[in-house]
Amino acid sequence: MLITENFAVFLVATLTLCAIPGPDMLYVIARSIGQGRKAGIVSAFGFSVGLLVHTCGAALGFSALLMSSPLAYSIVKYVGAAYLIFLGINMLLSKKSISSLGKLKQASLKRIFSQAIITNVLNPKIALFFLAFLPQFVNMSEGAVGWQILTLGIIFNIIGTLWNIIVAFMAGFAGDWLKNRPKFSRFQQWFTGGILISLGVHIALSQIS
Questions:
Q1: What tens digit of pLDDT does each residue of 104-122 get?
Q2: For residue 59, which of 80, 82, 107, 149 is within the disulfide window of CB 3.0 to 4.6 Å?
Q3: What stretches of 52-142 adopt beta strand conformation (E)?
Q4: Domain count, the chain
Q5: 3-class DSSP state for residue 22?
Q6: pTM (whole model) above 0.90
Q7: Smallest Cα–Cα separation from 104: which of 40, 29, 19, 54?
Q8: In the predicted model, what is the mean pLDDT of residues 19-34?
Q9: How far apart are CA 149 and CA 178, in angstroms?
Q10: Does some domain include residue 7?
């Protein structure tokens, strides 16, 4: 059902876009350095669920509806930005040493997973991106446009998730190295919190383009 001659272009574009550092990747890096590669991988899977929500939204037309309402877009954008900033400030104010976060309980990983989902779903820029990007590779003459968009979105999601897992492993090694150096413990905490706050501010100040 996909246009075969355009599918290779889609794959190249997807690989290129996934390799460019964005909010999701930076969040995975921050979590991996701050709490270990397991936390980064859990974040990657959380973002995967969020992307699936955006994919279904694009396929069903919800993304178009969101983009057509400035008020709805603004509400989702600012709620998502505020959530990221809240997480970042909470991290900065925490008195718990990052070096002690390696022994995470399962509940903590679940919270990380849910935070990643919420962060991704509340980023309307992703909805706009999916709405603008995926339809470019749809074969209108074949019909079933929604299913085509869903298929392309899932492929994009799989590639992006695998890339984020690789990033989590790489950042996790850096975190392990820092974790064995107590003087860097506080730096890890500030790095993670700073990244989250920066992402929140970026989303809040961003405009539809």
A1: 333 478 888 998 999 888 8
A2: 149
A3: none
A4: 1
A5: coil
A6: no
A7: 40
A8: 80
A9: 42
A10: no
80: containing domain: 23-205
How far apart (Å, rounded) are the C-alpha atoms in residues 121 and 76?
Answer: 9
What's the confidence (pLDDT) of residue 49? 95
Q: What are phi and psi of 97, to 5 degrees?
A: -70, 140
- Number of other CB atoms surrounding residue 42 within 10 Å: 26
Q: How far apart are CA 157 and CA 87, in angstroms?
A: 25
Does residue 9 lie in a domain region?
no
Task: Give the mean model confidence (pLDDT) for residues 62-87.
Answer: 73
Q: What angle do CA 156, 162, 166 make, to 5 degrees?
A: 140
Please give the structure tokens belonging to residue 32. Answer: 């991996």
Tokens for 69, please give them.
Answer: 């309402």
Report, in this order, helix, strand and coil percent for the chain, each rounded to 5: 85, 0, 15
> Per DSSP, which regions of 41-86 are E strands?
none
Give pLDDT, residue 187.
67
Those residues whose C-beta lies under 8 Å from the C-beta of residue 137, and which sit 6 or more positions away, are: 2, 3, 6, 7, 9, 10, 152
**24 close to 160: Cβ distance less than 8 angstroms:** yes
The count of other CB atoms within 10 Å of the CB of residue 67 is: 16
30 part of a folded domain: yes
> What are the structure tokens assigned to 18, written together?
């996934």
- The torsion region of residue 132 among left (phi > 0), alpha (psi -120 to 50) and beta comes to alpha
**Quick one: average pLDDT of 128-140?**
71
